[in-house]
Amino acid sequence: MQASAQPLIEDGRYGPLTEAAVRTFQASVGVPVTGVLDAGTKARLDAAFAALPPPVRAVLTLGSTGADVGFAQQKLNALGCNPRLIINAVFDASMMVAVIKFEVGTMGRFPTGTVDAAMWTALDTAVKGGFVAPEGASATPVEQNTPSGTANSLGTQVAGTSLHPVVGVGGLTQGPGVRELQQKLNKAGASPALADDGVFGPLTQAALQAFQSGRVPPLPATGTADKATWDALDAVAPGSTAGAVERQWTEVVGGATYGMTGANAARYSWEIQKTRMVVTAKVNFVGLPPPGAWFGHVQSVWNQYQGVETASKKSMPIDFQMVRGAGGDAKTVQVLAGSGRANAGKWYAADPNAAYTVPHEFGHLIGLQDEYQLHPGDFVRATGHEPPVGDAAGPAVAPATIAANLQAAMLARNSVNARAASVGAGVGEGAFAQRVVQEYAKLATATVPAVAAVPGPPPVPAKPAVPLTGELLFDLNAALPNDNDRYDTIQAFSYSSGSIMGDPGRENDPHDHGAQSRHIAEFMAILGRALGGTWEAKRR
Amino acid sequence: MILRLVIADGSQSPAVAESVEVSDDGVLTGWRSVSDGGVGWFAGQLPAGELAEIQALVGAVGAPPLDPPPPEAAEEVLELTATGPVAIAGITDGSGDWPSLATASRRLLDRLTDFPRAAVTVCYAAPSVARLVHRGTDPVRVGLGAVAVRATAWRGYYEPAGDWSGVVAGPAEVEARPGWTYDIAVGPEADGLGVDDDVIVHLAADFAILSGSARVPVRAKYTPAIAPPDALR
User: Fold this and answer.
1) Do residue A342 and residue A313 come from a single domain?
2) Per the domain annotation, does A175 fall within a domain?
3) pLDDT of residue B195
């Protein structure tokens, strides 16, 4: 409603900026100015919001270009277009196929190959978002996110690994993981029933061995809950009120693969209590002790949500906590003196940005992947948004020319030239950049020769020969030196969110800020398995 | 050459681009771009004991592990004569052949700052005064046209007590020699910078080192350690 000076950040907090905006709105509609969103104000606000004019849509035909084409592509994707359309803001042959399918299959009309007013109505009714709205009194243009469906913000689980830690002989012998085992053995018919005490004693071991030998075909009666045993237990008893997770996961960011695997896997536990769910990441801090403020930073950012059961409306706050501890259920984090850029295993005691850094890294500890410099497919999966249309027009340089210039820069391992050919030429994140990605994929492949270390300054390490793959992000990462120019170049051809797992320093998205409900979807599923029903994450 | 470690990270600005190299006779050389011990060129001689330790670690390594680096990790490439360049960002400090070598190599970067040749560091010389100081024996050209300074005040054990940042204009180019210093006014006292006895101020000063025609952005840091209270040890 443009009642605030700048677009309000959707952080779920009724702070002074929000209150001031409420006052401005109340004054504008002539209700008592209280700064409180009372029933009368809310009714006027809802009415004013509903009265906002719908976005003006252009009629699109084969060959059309521009932002509206991108928004239509987003919506067709969100409605299940297969294969997904690249959000390139060009109405090409692949989009024509999707449009015709939608006309016939969804609208039930004779195909025209045109996104006309009727089709826009159908698309806008089915999928919200997909337009640019001026927000705040400053009329800041903000692209409204187009939801793509179910998000999965977790890193990609390493194939063949279990989400359960090994419990029993040679593994965890106490804690939530043992409680989960005991509860599931009980549901699987352990006799006598085990005490749910989280201690792996002789009775638990015997019950585990009995479960293992009772399978058809039998599992080795090792007395240790390994992956095969957990798989069998989960099939018999999916839910429990406590549990531990050991998540081996990887991600692709900026064309490079990162991960938390092996001894560095993400480890966390959860417990469903009477009135709340507690998620705990136990961290074995080595080096310096962690500053006390870090623990508060985690709670400040993450303790924003509750699970709500859709039918009964029963609610359950989700409380996250980081605790110090050691053992097989702890993740080791090295605390270094001074300041620097933290990573998932190395934090800095004097980090002046710890209020952001620590909650971000905590997200990794509970298995969440980064949400910056992603490929389009990873962005959709991780954020639950269609890739933004962003800059649809681009500079007055053909995408094919930019692609060729980028390849030449890569063959020369010259990041300055790569940046000049892209960001320097006016390429920004969005649809036009994806056209460059498409053109790059068409180029003949080549091999970047090996290079010896350069002493600099700045120094550059020796690199082996790199066969270019045609996949732009991978190739930029592999061929160019790891410097600011490479980072800026990759940024232009990838996607980032503004959430706590994204890059709020570069992506100012007031609608996707801080911890988002998608980040705690895993715990909604756990609640459903344990308590039944369907649970959704809602702001407290 | 026994080993060469290069660490690079373009996701932050100024970029991390640092190197350390140990020659067969124990000469240690390298460059630091983001450092507490000074930024610029460093060179010195490793004592025989340290050199022997490094040689033993290098001689003991087998096939490198293939674990991916953790999220947000910088690129770390360790080059040995026997192996060529090996990406080690996924190797955490610890025991074992590669973890031990990775740990020792990373420490060499810190060790490097004991041997300044042509470097500049920063210190908190007086309340609200950041001082750039030349280190080493050789001159170094620096660009101070726009020095971005961030001062962070801490109380107790890293409890935030104030924060100030600003850009200070200075000479576009100056040659820093032994004895050279340059003072920069930082932050009003209202920001808590050094007013109270129990406050410790950290600094980060971004400027450029000029090398030939290249202008290399660097960050000199001043981050004196804060001792943890007994309850946290």
Assistant:
1) yes
2) yes
3) 60
B165 touches chain A (CB under 8 A): no
Same domain, yes or no: A343 and A420:
no
Query: Residue A466's pLDDT is what?
Result: 95
A260-305 residue pLDDT tens: 999 899 999 999 999 999 999 999 999 999 999 999 999 999 999 9
For residue A258, what are the domain limits?
246-365
pTM of the predicted protein model: 0.95
Asked if residue A251 belongs to a domain, the reply is: yes
The domain boundary, picked from A184, A210, A245, lies at A245
For residue A442, tell me if it sits in a domain.
yes
Average pLDDT of span B163-184: 95
Name chain B contacts of A250, Cβ cutoff 8 Å: 68
Q: Which residues of B touch A337 (CB under 8 A)?
A: 223, 225
Burial string for A101-117 (b: 16+ CB within 10 Å, else e) reads bbbeeeeeeeeeebbee
- The Cα-based distances of A232 to A35, A159, B214 in angstroms read 56, 18, 62
Interchain contact B191–A (C-beta under 8 A): no
Query: What CA–CA distance (Å, rounded) separates A174 from A168?
Result: 9
CB contact under 8 A, A459 and B17: yes
Identify whether A212 is part of a domain. yes
- The domain total for chain A is 5
A346 vs B contacts (CB less than 8 Å): 70
- Does the complex come out with an ipTM higher than 0.90? yes
| pLDDT value for B231 | 77
| Separation CA A339–CA B7 (nearest Å) | 16
Residue A233 to chain B, least CA–CA distance (Å): 30
Q: Which helix (H) or strand (E) holds B58?
A: helix B48-60
Same domain, A42 and A84: no
Q: Cα(A114)–Cα(A440) distance, rounded to whole angstroms?
A: 29
For residues A194 and A185, the answer to whether their CB atoms sit within 8 Å is yes
Residues A451-468 pLDDT 10s? 999 998 999 999 999 999
Residue at token pair 């159908």: A122
